[in-house]
Amino acid sequence: MSVEIERKFVLSSIPKGLPKLKIKQGYLQSDKNRTVRIRSIINQSNKATYYITIKGPSNSSGMSRFEYESIISNDDAEKLFDLCYLPLIIKNRYIYMYDGMKWELDSFCGDNKGLLIGEVEIVNENIDFEKPEFVIKEVTGNSKYYNSMLQKNPYNNW
């Protein structure tokens, strides 16, 4: 178990030529105090890995919260996906290294098509870092941009 500290940003674009991961995720529970997520990640070799993740409430800054994640079997994941709220979140993820930091850049599909989000995990909330030129604005702590909220109120409904 650990505490995840991350910052989230809306992007204007995603650089071309980055390796792509295909992500499908659904929520068994989603409210301000806890989120239980099932996720599949398909890599470039078409190998899938499945996870269950439990997240606690965000702190007052919206940057950090408790997170527990564990790999689960394909069979368990598929059974749990059947129990998730619909629609599922589908997105493509790209890993981008910038100024020594790993950025996860997400391009959403379906009802969230057109939304581009970048996240960077940091070791403490007070770290200052350079942002790539394609960052439009920070949305850390804005629950509207949480994946669990995008499932309930998709980007194309805004």
What keyword list fits this structure?
single chain, 158 residues, mainly beta, Hypothetical Protein Pfu-838710-001, eight-stranded antiparallel β-barrel, 47% strand, globular
What report would you give on this structure?
- The chain is mainly β and 158 residues long.
- The chain has one domain: Hypothetical Protein Pfu-838710-001 (Beta Barrel).
- The chain contains two helices and nine strands, in the order βββββαββββα.
- It has an eight-stranded antiparallel barrel with strand order 1-5-4-3-2-6-7-8.
- It starts with a strand and ends in a 6-residue tail after the last helix.
- The model has no long low-confidence stretch (mean pLDDT 94).
Helix and strand layout, with pairings?
Blueprint: E1 2-11, E2 20-30, E3 35-42, E4 48-55, E5 64-72, H1 74-81, E6 89-98, E7 101-108, E8 116-121, E9 135-138, H2 147-152
Antiparallel strand pairs: 1-5, 1-8, 1-9, 2-3, 2-6, 3-4, 4-5, 6-7, 7-8
* Secondary structure: helix percent: under 10%
CATH homologous superfamily identity: Hypothetical Protein Pfu-838710-001
Number of separate helices: 2
Strand order of the largest sheet: 1-5-4-3-2-6-7-8
Highest CATH level, the class: Mainly Beta
